[in-house]
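Practice problem 4.
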């Protein structure tokens, strides 16, 4: 679908202004809500989901009086439950299954019919995956996280191959993402920039303000995040062409018998996968109820 000319002129009239973080309206959530959301995630995602029952069990044992055998058994059961949960989410085999259930979109192929004719793709949107605050090497103290760097490298390769205009979106790191694209990957300056989007859904809604309904975009994010991202951007009115990165085989040290040995990397991947599963479940529930999602 072609963009309304009047709307397109408002977007493209001043690329330098569009790439400025101040050009995007700020919609920063209240600190209390952000803190509450982070606390909730810490409790229900690994390792919190395992440490909470362990802590509760230890408290029960500490305050058990006399011959309270039943109470002690409850405490021991809670500790055992937490230990089993922690073991399970630390196994590469479990992490692989949790991540595999999220991956639905294959890598983007150059002959994909959705990419023709030339010019049909309005933007190449790349989502951030976190940032570093207090980075001493940067004047503003902000640097992109390693996962964000993977996404930016993939977006830069697609940009050089197809010439699609770049649109980095990041929670406070959007300007740094634009710098990395230009300085480290030698791309053209991004045509748009959003440094105030806080969540995947927020990113989709804020991006939709810049385009006519039905605009076709190429979306870059990790394969484990792509399913939820595509759903969010489709709900916002985009025609989404997924371009996932990070699609590959398990690491060499997570094969064979090592898949059944606990590993810190597996714990991190299980946490990320469960975060995505919970986010998708919440999005589906909100869609059915007609209420707003985050």
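Answer key:
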């Amino acid at each position: 679908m072609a963009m309304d000319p009047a709307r397109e002129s408002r977007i493209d009239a001043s690329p330098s202004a569009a790439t400025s973080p101040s050009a995007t309206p700020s919609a920063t959530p209240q600190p209390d809500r952000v803190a509450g959301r982070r606390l909730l995630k810490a409790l229900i995602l690994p390792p919190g989901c395992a440490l909470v029952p362990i802590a509760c069990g230890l408290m029960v044992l500490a305050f058990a009086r006399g011959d309270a055998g039943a109470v002690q058994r409850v405490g021991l059961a809670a500790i055992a439950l937490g230990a089993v949960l922690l073991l399970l989410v630390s196994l590469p085999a479990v992490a692989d299954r949790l991540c595999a259930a999220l991956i639905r979109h294959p890598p983007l192929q150059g002959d994909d019919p959705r990419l023709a004719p030339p010019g049909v793709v309005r933007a190449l949107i790349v989502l951030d995956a976190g940032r570093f605050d207090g980075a001493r090497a940067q004047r503003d103290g902000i640097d992109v996280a390693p996962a964000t760097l993977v996404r930016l490298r993939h977006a830069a390769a697609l940009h050089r191959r197809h010439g699609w205009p770049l649109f980095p979106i990041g929670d406070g790191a959007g300007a740094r993402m634009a710098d990395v694209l230009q300085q480290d990957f030698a791309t053209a300056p991004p045509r748009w920039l959003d440094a105030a989007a806080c969540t995947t859904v927020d990113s989709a809604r804020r991006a939709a303000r810049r385009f006519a309904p039905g605009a076709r975009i190429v979306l870059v994010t990790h394969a484990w995040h792509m399913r939820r991202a595509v759903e969010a951007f489709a709900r916002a009115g985009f025609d989404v062409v997924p371009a996932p990165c990070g699609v590959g085989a398990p690491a060499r040290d997570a094969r064979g018998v090592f898949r059944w040995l606990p590993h810190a990397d597996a714990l991190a991947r299980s946490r990320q996968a469960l975060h995505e599963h919970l986010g998708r479940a919440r999005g589906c529930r909100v869609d059915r109820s007609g209420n707003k999602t985050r």
